[in-house]
Amino acid sequence: MEKDYYADGKTKAHLHHTRVLEKLRGKGIGSQLVKIAEDEAHKRSFKELTLGVEETNIEAIKLYEKLGYKEFMREKGDERKIIIGMKKNL
């Protein structure tokens, strides 16, 4: 997953393995975590934030889309899962 199309250390940062416990979902915690990461990346002069999400994680995909992320690629991940690469300009 950590390929240069996800993060290059110059203009692109990558949000890696962000999860909210199932019993705490739906309370805005995920949105807050992503926004904190976006703010921090912006402070460090990154222009783009990327992330990867399993294509079966519809709930997370909807959240990322609501926050302005767009799909830019798909790839096979571990155990033949399809990972959707998403990105947002900061």
UniProtKB/TrEMBL annotation:
This is N-acetyltransferase domain-containing protein. Signal peptide: none annotated. PROSITE patterns: GNAT. Residues 1-90 form the N-acetyltransferase domain. Pfam families: Acetyltransf_1. Keywords: Acyltransferase, Transferase. PANTHER family: ACETYLTRANSFERASE. It comes from Candidatus Jorgensenbacteria bacterium CG11_big_fil_rev_8_21_14_0_20_38_23. One of its GO terms (molecular function) is acyltransferase activity, transferring groups other than amino-acyl groups. InterPro entries: Acyl_CoA_acyltransferase, GNAT_dom, YpeA/RimI_acetyltransf. It comes from the Bacteria.
